[in-house]
Amino acid sequence: MGELVRFIAQALVNHPDQVMVTEKEDEDSVIIELRVAPDDMGRIIGKQGHIAKAIRTVVRSAAGRQKKRVTVDIV
Asked: How far apart are CA 65 and CA 74, in angstroms?
């Protein structure tokens, strides 16, 4: 799922080489941290957080097949 977040983020930002994704996995949950360049933060969050919500929705639906709870944090 980290690769999915990386793929989506790199398609949205101006500096795709500065996209960093880290995964922390527990028994039943996964925390994905997304870091981008400060200039690209607005592109990832979007107006009123719509793009961030969409990224989280796509990742949660992909995680539903694996029976894990996923949280995407934009740092």
From this structure: 23
